[in-house]
Amino acid sequence: MGRHSLPEEPVPHPLDPPKRPAGRSETTGSHRIVAKKAPRRRIAKWPLVAVGLVVLATLGVVGWNWADSVLNNRAEAQAASCNGGRTDVRIVVTPQVAKPVEAAAARWNQDLTQVHGSCVHVAVQSKPASAVLNALTGKSSLATIGGLPDGWIPESSYWVGQLSKANPDVIGSPAMPIGSGPPADYPFVGLSGTSIDEVQQRGTQSFRAFLKEPAQLADFAAAGIRAS
User: Fold this and answer.
1) Are 210 and 184 a contacting pair, CB within 8 Å?
2) Mean of the per-residue pLDDT values for the chain?
3) Phi, psi dihedral angles at 30 (to 5 degrees)
4) Element (H, E) at 153
5) Which of 39, 59, 77, 84 supports an S-S bond with 118, CB 3.0-4.6 Å?
6) pLDDT (tens digit, 9 = 90+) per residue, 156-193?
7) Is the pLDDT of residue 62 over 50?
8) Which CATH architecture has domain 78-223?
9) Contact in structure between 208 and 176 (CB atoms under 8 Å)
10) Where does the pLDDT of residue 87 fall: very low under 50, low under 70, confident under 90, or very high at 90 and above?
């Protein structure tokens, strides 16, 4: 035996499983085993959150504006309707302040200002302080000044002092100056009587406070009357 002989290939046993060719994937039945998939790439969540917040904020602003508009429209409709009726208030003033007080009354009436659910309409009448004092103290008839007014603005607190001495029961609320200091301080005094009801008294007091607002004070200043 002068040369080497190759080893003989073993003879497969009939019951042995068949060999798999190299490089082939395993199979189970008729399905191939699939390799693991690569992990899915995550999407950042903060941009979505930011967009959501912007949307919510926008909806909130739109909703607020809508609600505010509804309330304003409802208030305007209520004022325009004056469901509580109309109450007339008459203010007698000294001639020096007639113009600015009339301008204030025009604004007040245009706004259909309500007091206790009733639209209060303010009328302004110009009368000398002496004539008003005589009528309020019984020295002359109330008819000379058109009846008992709801409020009175003389040029000086002197006249209110005289009224307080002669007929204190006719004073319904303390005088409040609406002009510069003495002797011309233009006090506004609310009056009282059987012909003046609670709504008229409240309306008179509300109009007195209205005269202290910037627009009215500007009118007083234009008439040469400084704010007190």
Assistant:
1) no
2) 80
3) -105, 5
4) strand 151-153
5) 84
6) 999 999 999 999 999 999 999 998 877 889 999 999 99
7) no
8) 3-Layer(aba) Sandwich (3.40)
9) yes
10) very high
In whole angstroms, how far apart are CA 100 and each of 26, 53, 76, 223? 104, 52, 26, 7
Burial of 72 (0-12, 13-18, 19+ CB in 10 A): exposed
SS3 124: strand
Residue tagged 């309306």 (tokens): 203
| Separation CA 147–CA 157 (nearest Å) | 22
H-assigned helices in the chain: 46-81, 98-110, 129-136, 157-166, 198-210, 214-222
The structure tokens 């302080």 sit at 129
> What mean pLDDT do residues 192-196 have?
96
* Domain range list for the chain: 78-223
Q: Are 122 and 91 in contact (CB under 8 A)?
A: yes
pLDDT of residue 182: 72
Residue 81 is encoded by which pair of tokens? 């309707």
Q: Is residue 54 scored above 50 in pLDDT? A: yes
pLDDT at 15 over 80: no
Would you state the structure tokens that stand for residue 13, as one six-digit string? 């046993």
Euclidean distance between CA atoms 188 and 89, whole angstroms: 14
